[in-house]
Design brief:
The protein folds into 2 domains: 60 residues, Winged helix-like DNA-binding domain superfamily/Winged helix DNA-binding domain (Arc Repressor Mutant, subunit A); 177 residues, Beta-Lactamase, CATH 3.30.450.40. The strands form 2 sheets. It has a 6-stranded antiparallel sheet with strand order 6-5-4-9-8-7. A 3-stranded antiparallel sheet has the order 1-3-2. The relative contact order is 0.10. It is an alpha+beta fold and 257 residues long.
C-alpha cells in the first residue's frame, strides 16, 4: 500500500473514507453513487470494496449495492461505550461550572442513547442511567440531535405523529417540532421544560464535529435551572462542547508516550 506524505497509509484512509460515505448515505450505496460521492476512480473503489467485503466490513445485497457489514457492529458498540469515558473530563467541567448533572447522548436508530453522565453534587439532582434509551421529541438532547439532521430525515425520525405525551408539556405535533428545530439550529441549543418529566428542566447543545450526532446537556430541578443565567450557561456549555468535538476529531496520537 502506498504511503502518504503525511505518514499515513493511503489505501487505509481511502477505505475508511468509503465506509463513512456509505454511512452518511444511510448505510447502503451503489457503486456509481459511491464513485460520485467519494471522488475516487472506479478501479480503486472496486479494489477497496472487494477487500472490505472479504473482511466483513461491507456486504453486497441482492441489487449489487454495498451495505455496511456486520463486523462494524462490534467496533461501533465498543467505541460507543468508550465515548462516555473520553468525554468524562468535559462533562465534569460542565457539571462544576453549572452545578447540575451533565449528560452526553447520541442518536441511534431514531432513539436518544445516554452514553455518559457526571451527576450534580446537590442532594436533589437528576440521574439518568448510562445506556438508557428515550424518545427524542421530549428531551433537550433529542431535539438538538434531530435538529442537526436535514428536515426530511428529522421528519422521518419523528414519524407522522401524534407523538407520545409524557407530560402535559410534551410537544406531540411533528410539524411544531420541525419549526422548533429551525430555531434550535439558529440559537444553538434546545430546552426540555418538563416535557419528559414533571419538575425537570434540561438545556442541551450539540457537540460540533463529533463523528456521529452527539449532544451535551445539563439537567436539574425546574425551579433551580430556571433561576440560573441561561445565556451564560449556554455560552459555557457551547465552549466545552466545542473543545470536546475538537478532541474527538483529533484523537490521540498513537506515537505519544
Amino acid at each position: 500500500m502506498a504511503e502518504r506524505a503525511t505518514g499515513g497509509v493511503q489505501s487505509l484512509e481511502r477505505a475508511f473514507d468509503l465506509l463513512e460515505v456509505i454511512a452518511d448515505a444511510g448505510g447502503v450505496l451503489g457503486l456509481s453513487d459511491l464513485a460520485s460521492r467519494s471522488g475516487l476512480p472506479m478501479p480503486t473503489i472496486h479494489r477497496l470494496v472487494r477487500t472490505l467485503v472479504r473482511t466483513g466490513y461491507l456486504r453486497q445485497d441482492s441489487s449489487r449495492r454495498y451495505a455496511l457489514g456486520p463486523r462494524l457492529i462490534r467496533l461501533g458498540e465498543s467505541a460507543g461505550r468508550l465515548l462516555g469515558s473520553w468525554a468524562r473530563p468535559y462533562l465534569a467541567e460542565l457539571m462544576e461550572s453549572t452545578g447540575e448533572t451533565a449528560n452526553l447522548a447520541v442518536l441511534e436508530s431514531g432513539e436518544v442513547v445516554y452514553v455518559g453522565q457526571v451527576p450534580s453534587r446537590h442532594s436533589m439532582r437528576m440521574f439518568t442511567e448510562v445506556g438508557r434509551r428515550v424518545q427524542p421529541h421530549c428531551t433537550a438532547v433529542g431535539k438538538v440531535l434531530l435538529a442537526q439532521l436535514p428536515d426530511d430525515q428529522a421528519a422521518r425520525a419523528l414519524g407522522p405523529g401524534p407523538l407520545t405525551a409524557h407530560t402535559a408539556f410534551t410537544v406531540t405535533d411533528p410539524a411544531e417540532l420541525l419549526r422548533q428545530f429551525a430555531a434550535i439550529r439558529q440559537q444553538g441549543y434546545a430546552i426540555d421544560d418538563q416535557e419528559q418529566e414533571l419538575g425537570v428542566r434540561c438545556i442541551a447543545v450539540a457537540v460540533p464535529g463529533a463523528p456521529t450526532a452527539t449532544a451535551m446537556s445539563v439537567s436539574g430541578p425546574e425551579g433551580r435551572l430556571r433561576s440560573t443565567d441561561e445565556a451564560k450557561l449556554v455560552a459555557g456549555a457551547k465552549e466545552i462542547a466545542a473543545r470536546l468535538g475538537e478532541a474527538l476529531r483529533a484523537g490521540p496520537d498513537p506515537e505519544d508516550g
